Amino acid sequence: MTPSPGEGSGDLSIGRLAVCALGAATVVLVIATTVILVVKPGPVVGLVVGLLGVAGAIASMGYVSKRMTRNAYGGDPQDPEPGSGR
């Protein structure tokens, strides 16, 4: 039985979620490190690239975990209309 659109299967492995989120963060950090090694910027620019890499790693972990969770459990429920009594 396939879930209807907007509903997930309810099958989510915490280990798989962790590995995928950390993998996404690792890819972003490897890209930032490669940029620093290839461009060889000064200290300030290197620090900015490093901080952008850390921020990108955090953002990619959030994106991957949110996407996997929504695929497993469905999207957010709709907010009730004002005055609907719910």
Task: Report the major sheet.
Answer: none
Q: Which residues form runs of ≥5 with pLDDT under 50?
A: none
The rough form would be described as: elongated
Total count of strands: 0
The number of helical segments is 2
Q: What is the rounded Rg?
A: 19 Å
Helix content: 55-70%
Average predicted confidence as pLDDT: 87
* Beta-strand share of residues: under 5%
Secondary-structure element order, as H and E? Answer: HH
Q: Report, as a whole number of angstroms, the end-to-end distance.
A: 30 Å
Brief sketch in words of this structure:
The chain has 86 residues and is mainly α. It is built from two helices and no strands.
What would you note in describing this structure?
The model has no long low-confidence stretch (mean pLDDT 87). Helix content is 66%, strand content 0%. The chain is mainly alpha-helical. It has helices at residues 14-39, 43-73.
Characteristics:
86 residues; mainly alpha; 66% helix
Layout of secondary structure:
Layout: H1 14-39, H2 43-73
Helix pairs in contact: 1-2
